[in-house]
Amino acid sequence: MSKPNVSTEDHQEPGLYEIRIKGHLDTRWVDRFEGLCFTHESDGTTILFGPVADQAALHGFLRGVRDLCLPLVSVIQVHPKQASGLDFNTDSNFNRSIKERNS
Prior knowledge:
Elements: E1 15-22, E2 37-40, E3 45-52, H1 55-67, E4 72-78, E5 98-100
Parallel strand pairs: 2-5
Antiparallel strand pairs: 1-3, 1-4, 2-3
């Protein structure tokens, strides 16, 4: 039996992700999504944004969304060049970073 032709080069690379959920996530859940910053959008959604080490970590964050019964709107891998306009610094600790965006 032959093995499937699957490239693993992108599967272990850390990446920046934007996870959008419906509703404004309360600050008491910040520790569950350690390493991601929260942005409350004016449309009533919350964006979780930041570096994700690998696919296993991404699935862990998504399990956290599921376990809290939060409606998942989207998951997007963000290219670092696209993130340049966002308030993001890979050397900083986001765990307590919550901002209101009114645009």
